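Bench notes, afternoon.
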Amino acid sequence: MSLKSTQRQRVSVQVGVAAAAAVAALVGFSGPATALPSDQVVQFNPTLARVPGNGCAAIINAETVPQPQAGQLGVRVKIVQTGENCEGYRVSVRWKNLDTGVANGQSHKVDSNGVIEHAPDGVITGMGMAPGPGRVEATIVATTDSYPNHRDLEQLSGMAWITLNK
């Protein structure tokens, strides 16, 4: 592959990420909502990430999924990926309860096709996903799949603000 071809691919990915960022900015921030089974779903701003591979990038859309128990958070993740010979990476939900200061999260591996592993219907729940009642700030982050540390990839992370009831 020539240097000019590599530069064109790099510019192409940067332009694509910039265009997606502009669309995300037009969408705006989701307002606070609650997450009990009868409450509305909260949309995250899209996460736009460069992922490992040849000109690979991903748009990671996410929304909350009401959980049967109060104070628990579920997040459905949908990934649109482009590029050639993309490699695996991880997608994380990181949260902080703004009322209690408690922070945690959970990450899952994403395969080379952009499919999240071990998350039925793309929903992340379970351990690390119980912020408790209160105002919660949550972020979707793409990271490397390297052990033991998962470094953040180059990205614009999506966020949402949720109120979990008692």
